[in-house]
Amino acid sequence: MTIRLEEVTRKMGAETHIFPTSMELKSGSLNVLLGHTLAGKTTLLRLLAGLDRPSSGKIFVDGVDVTGASVRQRNVAMVYQQFINYPSFTVFDNVASPLRRAGVSPQEIDQRVRSVAKSLHIDALLDRLPAELSGGQQQRVALARALVKEAGLLLLDEPLVNLDYKLREELRQELRAIFRRRESIVVYATTEPTEALLLGGHAFVVDEGRILQSGPSIEVFHAPASERVGKVFSDPPINLIGGRVTGRSAVLGDTISMDLPDHMTLLDEGAYRFGVRANFLNVRRQSDRDLEIEGCVELAEISGSETFIHLEHHGVSWVAQEEGVHSFGLGDTVSIFVDPDHVYAFDGSGRLAACPPYEARGGG
Amino acid sequence: MDKWEDNRAWWLVVPVFLIVAISAIIPLMTVVNYSVQDIFGPGQRVFVGTEWFKEVLTDRRLHEALGNQFLFSGLVLLIEIPLGVAIALAMPKQGWRASLCLVLLALPLLIPWNVIGTIWIIFTRPDIGLMGVAINGLGLEFDHTAAPLDAWVTVMLMEVWHWTPLVVLLAYAGLRAIPEAYFQAARIDGASAWATFRYIQLPKMRGVLTIAVLLRFMDSFLIYAEPFVLTGGGPGNATTFLSIHLVKMAVGQFDLGPAAAFSLIYFLIVLLFSWLFYQALQNVGTGDKR
Description:
The structure holds 2 protein chains of 2 kinds. Helix content of chain A is 23%, strand content 35%. By secondary structure, chain A is of the alpha+beta class. Chain B has 2 domains: 4-47, no CATH class; 62-283, MetI-like (MetI-like fold). Chain B has helices at 4-7, 14-35, 51-57, 60-90, 96-110, 113-124, 130-137, 148-176, 180-189, 193-204, 206-221, 225-230, 242-252, 256-283; strands at residues 37-41, 44-47. In chain B, a hairpin with a 2-residue loop joins β1 (37-41) and β2. The interface between A and B is medium-sized, with 23 and 22 residues.
């Protein structure tokens, strides 16, 4: 099965939710829609499902125009952020419901429900009601209901966002394995760059109703085509600072000067915006070449086993992500360091001009 | 006591205990006290054991009132709950129309109960009332002061008009609380409108409908002001409900003993049925087979 969007738009009154968008998705592919809240991910999923009609443009499934076909005529399954199950059905009946509607024989229903339930580790819960399950188990039931259908198109709209951290990790691993075994087109919407990277597959970076960039997740991550992609595909968002390239050196902001690293040697002279991801900013100097950014601590948040340090340097805020738990006093003066080999350069219109080298490992 | 400091915390409970004692326990015990004594006057009382209970339980008039009461409450639940849910389903989901509907629906709930009775007396009068004149104009004889059936119809109409909005408001709140994703999921599953109602909306409304059934049962079982104003319990005893009967007994005939005994029975009936409804509604429809 192949699904193709051709110049599809979606307008609601005066607001445009999706600007003309084209994309093609093939069977067995895992596609991640990555974007902030309200970027248009859910609207795209609804268009793919057939829940909404595009305002203009066409949608083809295997070359057949299905633009006007309602969701019932399409072979679609969807999982939501909320845990959606029939409240008065047992787990078994919940999972079986799409098959019953399709008129599958009772023996086959029984066998398929049990095998899906087993793969999602809910086979011991088949007689329970959704209200008797934990959040993670409820979402497993919703996933089982979507998977049992063996629909050609499986849509997941931030399915793990309402689960706690550990459950999310666990279920993400399982999902990745399940997606690999399936023939269907999987479309997975998420706001989290880490999730896009962990799932692998093909990333579509969505922002303000447009697809900014698409490609294998790891490549898009390492080589964001524009500042906006860099912001969406980094958490915390990539640090950006204006600067100039003159001759063999560059100045970041007004104060941080560096010799051009190898990947920037071809840059023309002129104004650029330089970008550094938070995880490449360290509180300890790693080498003599490191640039030093001295600033005043505005905020230090500890998240899990990492510390995010926000500091102000000559009117520009920087965020550094540091392994381990550290405490910094507000207003302390701290230096953070970055290797020039990890600095991105974007040109005046926000397009990537120089990309730090990375090891290509292929899209996974 | 080596933990004397901790025990002082009991003093914090005293105000609550006093309030509950004054508002509930003491009046209730007074009623219990009355129900086992015959009181001739101040300081003149005789212990009579269960005599008043026996008298009350064999009272034919009381059986009649009890029958009326169950018929009335049963009809109230059978009409108001489905009607309320149906109206809630038909209401606009958002925007100024939804606000307008809610305000219009809430109006009957804001009117004092005896005023409601008065409104309906005038509304149904065969000589000047809008509804009374209209029905008689159609050639049907309609007079709630003369015909028992007409009195019942009027009381039921008044009750449904007055209280269905409460059920609508509760059901509407329950419906609005269902995430939109449920309806999308139902569409993807290809569920019909009936199936969506039966397997998503109805189970999701279980909580609010339980409240609605309990409130409507208790309120209708205790109804007094509106039928008292509208029909005074008549014609004959056709619309004499338990409260009306009780007031006649206690205030009209000053039979304090039987009235107290009857009050306790009345209270236990309400408690028992509320509990039964609650239990039933907690368990109904769990594990639907489809």
